[in-house]
Design goal:
Helix 1 runs parallel beside helix 9. This protein has eleven helices and two strands; from the N terminus they run E-H-H-H-H-H-H-H-H-E-H-H-H. By secondary structure, the chain is mainly α.
Amino acid sequence: MPFPAPVGGLVLPSDLAPSIVFAVLYALLLPLVAYRIFDRRSRTLLLLGTIIFSVERIVIFSLRAAQSQKVSMQLSNGLLKYMQVSFAVGFIGIANDLVNLLRCLLVNPTYGLEKWEEAPASNTKESSFQTPGPGDEDRPKERFWLRRYSDFTNLAFMAASIPGGIGGAQFKREDFADDAKADKAMNFRYASTSVGLFLMFMIQAGAIWSRRKQRRHSEKAISMILAVSLLTTVIAVYRLSIMWHRSPSLESTEPGTLNSPGAKASFYILHVLPEWIASAVLLSFNTRKTFGTGAFGDWRGADDRPKDIERREKRKAKRAAKKAEKLSEKGGDTVELVSVSRTSV
């Protein structure tokens, strides 16, 4: 039984131009990456996966450009495994960032005024989420179950990325006639992408539920997460539609081996391009403000207990005391300078 055809096919001379184009497009995202890292007002740990992914894609498309010109690199087992693993789990990494953003999107509207200080959006200046008023009810039970929903979706991410890595690692030029490894690669790839598609549906369902059920939801955040998750859904559907193709050998160009011009064009349009657009959207907009994430998102597993609140209030009091002390010292220095200047006059 022939081995599953690698997604993206064998790297051929025709891959040179699109590989250079996408390497340049991802390189153009580097200024945005740097800005999101160093700008305090837009910095958030929740974009770490997208940032790493964007930098890694520069590497992978640079390698594909070099591969297209060297036969020895085209047949490299190491590069074959690396690219198959990367294409299998890359879009799932973006979706994992969406899960963490979804958690903030769902949790922020559940806070009432008395608990608002615990909300991620309370640590975000000019957040797209409305600050609760005196009449807005705090909903701890709803918040608890929304956090569990997010936890379950994160588990779905793990269930998708692990078999994706295992399936991609099965690719080896010498094993294309090995039926056992062929079946293993096929099963793991389908399992990974299927669970990944389920993950997208979970994200979209959560966002739509928020739009319908949560009064203080952020329409901007919901529209953004739906748009990006639809892009990653396109990738998952594309992978499921072509992974049944098999190839008698890595270098085969027979019909169905994903090495035809049409198959190559589909790969770059339906797999690679949506990845880049999704990354560009997440990095171009101030995701911290849009989703009210603060620096670390909704890191709490549960609401603060009374003793946690007491410790937080003590820390606030200490910071306020230090700030007042510094201001008084500056004020004293200013008075001293004024008195000295008057004496000299």
